[in-house]
Amino acid sequence: xxxxxxxxxxxxxxxxxxxxxxxxxxxxxxxxxxxxxxxxxxxxxxxxxxxxxxxxxxxxxxxxxxxxxxxxxxxxxxxxxxxxxxxxxxxxxxxxxxxxxxxxxxxxxxxxxxxxxxxxxxxxxxxxxxxxxxxxxxxxxxxxxxxxxxxxxxxxxxxxxxxxxxxxxxxxxxxxxxxxxxxxxxxxxxxxxxxxxxxxxxxxxxxxxxxxxxxxxxxxxxxxxxxxxxxxxxxxxxxxxxxxxxxxxxxxxxxxxxxxxxxxxxxxx
DNA sequence: CCCGTGCCCTGGCGGC
DNA sequence: TGCCGCCAGGGCACGG
Length: 269
Prior knowledge:
- The protein has 269 residues and is α+β, with helices and mostly antiparallel strands.
- The chain has two domains: 4-130, Alpha-Beta Barrel (N-terminal domain of MutM-like DNA repair proteins); 135-263, Helicase, Ruva Protein, domain 3 (Orthogonal Bundle).
- 25% of the residues lie in helices and 20% in strands.
- A hairpin with a 2-residue loop joins strand 2 (52-56) and strand 3.
- Helix 1 (4-18) packs parallel to helix 6 (192-211), helix 3 (140-147) packs across helix 6 (192-211) and helix 5 crosses helix 6 (192-211).
- The chain binds a DNA duplex (16 and 16 nucleotides) through loops.
């Protein structure tokens, strides 16, 4: 499940391989993933050159000459660069490139999305205008003010990409463990210092995960994927029954707003 | 406006 | 061994 560190790793991997490639053709194998008018999506990128690749939150942005191609990988999306091999059944979108290679979007759960938007305005419209700053760019006091009246559990707020972007289920659990805050605490009951500590913890957790290339929980053989090493650093996520690395109390798994959640019942208050 | 729920999808796993 | 049913989960539409 790619979160900010995994998406960043994908961007850094794709960039040197795809910059200055021109898109010569496109094949859409799973039309539902395309969220822009399909005739526009299919024809407008042809002849345009990939000038840059970057991301906002968990969205990957391919900057072309006059438009941007925006992908969201959701849980299982990944890219492969291949020659003229036959299509895999999970490849849903194929870009043909001027070098003769193909860029393939692969997603066996079919949750990922693709948009094509004009380069001048894409930041002001959906989906990217819904994406808040990531933790390192979040103003601590402003964030506290923004969430302080909410009765929702802090975990739900940290997963809300409009308020702050980049955290998913894994890194929220790790962030709240590091900050010693229980995921079910309501935002309205948190002191400003606690909220500040949570954002600071998120910055640290994400920075370390980016440095290690993200987290690979399920092992896939991927030619162009995430071979992250942060899974070795996880303190609570997926650790149900194992001792808390701080106090030794067994980690428990609970459900918070529908999400599987790992917590140390002693350390996190 | 705010919040909770259901939906999308399919590989993998538990249960029998 | 094989099959069935359910779970996982990010973001969005929808309804209260």
